[in-house]
Amino acid sequence: MSVPAEAAQRYQWRVAIVEDHLLQRKRTEELVAVQPGLRVTWSGETLTDFIDWLAGVPERQRPHLLILDLLVERGPSADPTLVREVTRAGIKVLVLSAMASPELVRKILRAGIGGIAGKRDSEEDIVAAIWTVLGRGQWLTPELASVIAGDTDRPKLSDQEERALVLYASGLTLDSVAAALGVKKDTAKKYLSRVKAKYAAAGRPVSTKLELNTVAQQDGYLDPPTRL
């Protein structure tokens, strides 16, 4: 989907990007930059970095749209309160994330965002989502809508339990998980034990890292491996 050339000449939309993975961020920058009428004005790793930048930028340089990844590998997930500050400032928000924690997504939706696209979506769909949100529309794929609705056998995990599951199931050691969460190793181990207990209570017992990886993919916390 593209904007008509004459419209692009009359107006240019400013876009900011929050994405902690460098390659993904660069590809998103490229995808935006080649669209007539779109220009990247800021790109960085975290939502707090973006808000710090926004506080000192002139009105004429403020972005019209923020493309936001919800979760970063080492750090807290996007704070719905901060997202609300962004939307109240008149900036549209399109979430572009591989993670699909129903509880977090519901909170982010209530913060007034314009849509959610998945990193597994085609680039054509991502571009369509950008233009839809800029045009004051709403974008939500059926797959994500199903995840947000929640599965009855999907355990309710706390934010820290989710983080521990994602990091550990991604292949990190327990020591690395603890370091990423900023907690002691025993605390990280307790988070994972709670995750296992909750899955067992839901009738989906897991014990090994491989089994945790499998349920993390099934429940939308992790992308399935890319097939070449």
Walk me through the structure.
Mean pLDDT is 85; it is low at 1-9. It is built from 11 helices and 6 strands. It has helices at 5-10, 22-33, 47-56, 80-88, 102-110, 123-134, 142-149, 159-169, 174-181, 185-201, 209-218; strands at 13-18, 38-44, 65-68, 92-97, 115-118, 139-140. α8 packs antiparallel against α9 and α8 packs across α10 (185-201). Helix content is 49%, strand content 13%. The chain is α/β, with parallel strands linked by helices. β1, α2 and β2 form a beta-alpha-beta unit. It has a 6-stranded parallel β-sheet with strand order 2-1-3-4-5-6, sandwiched between helices.
Features:
disordered N terminus; Rossmann fold; 11 helices; 2 domains; alpha/beta; elongated; 228 residues; 6-stranded parallel beta sheet; Arc Repressor Mutant, subunit A
